[in-house]
Amino acid sequence: MITTLAIKNYALIEDIRVEFKRGLTIITGETGAGKSILLGALGLVLGKRADSKVVRNTEKKCVIEAEFDVRKYQLELLFSENDLDFEPHTILRREILPSGKSRAFVNDTPVTLQQMQLLGERLIDVHAQNDKHTLTTESFQIDVIDALAGNQELRVEYSAQRNDYKRKVDELDRLRMEKEQAAKELDYHNFLYSELNEANLSTLDQPLLEEAYEKLNNVEEIQEALSQVAQLLQEETSGTLATATNARTLLNSIRDFSKQYGSFWERLNSVIIELADLNEEIVNATEQLEPDPRLLAEVNEKLQRLQALQQKHAVASVKELMTIEEELGEKIERSSNIETHIDALVHEAEVAKERTSELAIRLNEKRRKAIPTLKQKLENILQELGLPNAQFRFELDDTGEFRKHGNAVLELLFTANKGAQLAPLGKVASGGEMSRIMLAVKAVLAEYKQLPTLIFDEIDSGISGEIGHKMAEIMSAMSEHMQLLSITHLPQIAAKGDNHKRVFKVDREEVTQTMIKDLNEEERVIEIAQMIGGSSVSDSAIAHAKQLLN
After folding, report:
1. N or C: which end of the chain has fewer CB within 10 A?
2. What is the 3 state secondary structure string of 231-245?
3. Interatomic CA distance for residues 422 and 390, integer angstroms
4. Do 328 and 187 share a structural domain?
5. Full DSSP string of 116-160
6. Do residue 118 and residue 187 come from a single domain?
7. What is the number of alpha carbons within 13 Å of residue 139 lying toward its C-beta?
8. Cα 53 to the center of its chain, rounded Å
9. How far apart are CA 399 and CA 360, in angstroms?
């Protein structure tokens, strides 16, 4: 239940704080006094979108804050799912900055507007004059039946099963499209894979192939160069080895005179040894190097194939080609296995469909059992509200479609007149009848489920006299089990309140402000007398007001 509502800098409200109690709270006031402003402010903390035009003083922020006692609403799971700390006394706050930006908080934790809406829906149910069309919607009508049928847990189970079935059907559609696409691409993928596979990529070393090609393709030039190098090294008189050997002999004659000369000799000796080894290797390399046109052609063919594949697949290495080969192999394997996956998923989808259908059938069976009770209760209440000939007929038919609430389609037929043909509710019920039907529905629901705080915004429009008394009695009975706020122009309803608040406007200097006041017993008499007879309160109006209050 809502315990307090604080409003600052909103529309005609400068700064007010309203406290609410259990039972039936009545809110009255002249047309234009600001009752709708009060509801508008409350709507902001329930998650409705903000309009910067409602900010009274554009140099300050607008703040709306509402405190709720949520101990009986079983909201712990909702708080947990939204990463919010559960507090038995929860505060919802909305701020509209001068820039027009809006912020939302739950217990001082920033939240999204969607999170605030989810919580708001569980805390307050507002029925305004223009909300009566809700009665004519199929989803609302089925929700009412399900409340009486006790279908809440079954609805949750059905919804989860339906979602699972839909996921499987969507996956089947995706796999079938993939199969169709894979069939179109399979031949091409097989061709590319075979081309890469035949290249034996794992046996190829591209740098070695390129080196072998350069050697085989330039045999004569290499032989000529190596022969000249060997000749320069080996020449007896002026060859490099001979010259170095002579120099070593000279150094040998003086190396004992200084460690430095000994170092020269050792270094030169190392060079001579290295030159001798180098000469031997060059001679061997020259002898081994022979033209081999067949091997050259073979190496050239491998390189050309490799380079063609790299160019075709827009890569620069053998490793990248091997990765592409592996991916193509996986695609080909997946194409061959996709039919198996489809067959398995078809079976799973059939099982899910059967299970969803079973739950939908159970929902409808319980609904059909609850409908006669609901019909009788609604007609009994409407009889009290001056519609003695009101009749309902709930036409619930099964369909093959798994809808949000089951596989049923519902049409609610109604007539308020004896002997008249029943027709869809929205087409035949008048405004006054719709108000009474909505009250009857809420009265029935109050017997079967824990309703949030209920606000009726002039649900009594089009109602007067004895019917107003009956409506007031029903509201009073409902308020024994829940918190109920009623904005009303009807004195019969106003007199039934456990608490009474009056909304009014005052002029202060050059500013008009909306205020709200808790009425005491004497003030209630005057307020109700004015509702009966107008601003000029007569003795008879006072007497009538006292009679209503007593």
Report:
1. C
2. HHHHCCCCCHHHHHH
3. 10
4. yes
5. HHHHHHHHEEEE-GGGGGGGG-HHHHHHHHHHHHT-HHHHHHHHH
6. no
7. 5
8. 30
9. 10
Report CA torsion sign: 115, 119, 120, 125.
positive
Per-residue pLDDT tens digits for 409-451: 999 999 999 989 999 998 999 888 888 898 899 999 888 877 7
Q: Token digits for 489?
A: 């122009």
Q: Amino acid identity of 98? A: P
Six token digits for residue 217 = 């393709």
326 phi and psi, to 5 degrees?
A: -65, -45
In a domain, 374, yes or no: no
Task: Give the tokens for residue 405.
Answer: 């609430």
Q: Measured between alpha carbons, how far is residue 515 from residues 28, 71, 411 in Å?
A: 12, 30, 45
The burial class, CB within 10 Å (0-12 / 13-18 / 19+), for 174 is exposed
pTM above 0.85, yes or no: no
Cα separation of 10 and 48, whole Å? 15
Domain that holds residue 510: 1-128+450-519
Cα(199)–Cα(208) distance, integer angstroms: 16
The 3-class SS string of 252-265 reads HHHHHHCHHHHHHH
Residue 50 neighbours by CB distance under 10 Å: 21
Cβ contacts of 172-180, under 8 Å, gap ≥ 24:
172/342, 172/345, 172/346, 172/349, 175/338, 175/341, 175/342, 175/345, 176/342, 178/338, 179/335, 179/338, 179/339, 179/342
If one counts the domains in the chain, the total is: 2
Order of strands, sheet of 89-96, starting from the edge strand that comes earlier in the sequence: 13-19, 2-10, 62-69, 89-96, 102-106, 109-111
Q: How would you list the strands of the sheet with 391-403, edge to edge?
A: 391-403, 406-415, 423-424
